[in-house]
Write a structure and sequence with these properties.
With 253 residues, the protein is α/β, with parallel strands linked by helices. The protein contains seven helices and ten strands. Helix content is 37%, strand content 22%. Strands 3-2-1-4-5 form a five-stranded mixed sheet. A five-stranded mixed sheet has the order 8-7-6-9-10, sandwiched between helices. A hairpin with a 2-residue loop joins strand 2 and strand 3. Helix 3 (128-138) packs antiparallel against helix 5.
């Protein structure tokens, strides 16, 4: 039986089909109807996996919207992210996941089981939504945050609150500060928040960086610099939660 993991996040819904040691992935915006987004992800991974229409699937749901979707099993995102990250980067002892509305740090045992975790879901600063809002203020896209020249001078962002940071950015633009410098400063503030969160429960070993923000390799480098630890960004870092759900459903984690 094939196993599908559906990770219904605040920003994106991810689906992963696991069968015979290989997997197919699909991502779609969650939008206002997470149940419909999950159903779409399920249909797409089934199609990509070329499964016969009548073949039975075991579906495991995770993420903040897991209770709005009919699944065979529901598992917490901490457990699923740990399983997925361990599969993608088995040498890592810590998982750092920065998603759309929260960030989390998970410490792992050598066999990939959760030993501790810490979540930051009380403040938007340090998340993908924070960078998305700042991109609007700067008149750029999220992709522009990953395309900053190395020689760009750094602009310190003093405000750690998302609301005050927005006001600070508007003020810096009025002063004529280059947008590239502001973008670098904003990335640095996210990296600092991530490093602070990591340091509260983990002080050694490689870090597996997952979530939508892991697509920004520059952010990964900044986190690596601030933690003094090797940061691994797997090829399918954004699918860690869904992959973990699929592995758990298949009895592989």
């Amino acid at each position: 039986m094939a196993s599908v993991g559906i990770d219904i996040g605040s920003t994106a819904t991810k689906g992963v089909l696991w069968k015979g040691g290989c997997f197919e992935c699909y991502l779609t915006p969650t939008g206002w109807t997470p149940g419909e987004s999950a159903a779409k992800a399920l249909a797409q991974v089934r199609r990509r996996g070329r499964l016969p229409r009548g073949e039975e699937l075991h579906v495991t749901a995770t993420g903040y919207g897991r209770n709005v979707f009919q699944a065979d099993r529901r598992v917490t995102e901490i457990t699923c992210h740990a399983a997925g990250a361990h599969y993608l980067a088995p040498q890592a002892s810590t998982v750092l996941d920065i998603g759309g509305q929260d960030s989390k740090v998970i410490t792992l045992s050598p066999n990939g089981k959760v030993t501790d975790f810490l979540m930051n879901d009380k403040c938007a600063a340090g998340t993908g939504r924070f960078l998305q809002n700042m991109a609007v203020q700067l008149g750029c896209s999220l992709a522009d945050f990953g395309d900053i020249p190395e020689e760009t001078p750094f602009q310190l962002i003093n405000s750690m609150c998302a609301v005050f940071a927005e006001s600070e950015v508007i003020g810096l633009l009025a002063q004529g500060v280059a947008k590239e410098s502001i973008r670098l400063g904003l990335l640095d503030s996210v990296a600092q928040r991530a490093a602070n969160l990591v340091s509260r429960i983990s002080d050694h070993g490689d870090i597996c960086f997952t979530g939508g923000c892991a697509q920004n390799s520059l952010l990964g480098k900044l986190i690596e610099k601030k933690t003094g630890r090797h940061v691994i960004i797997p090829e399918r870092a954004q699918y860690a939660g869904a992959l973990g759900a699929a592995l758990i459903g298949a009895g592989r984690a």
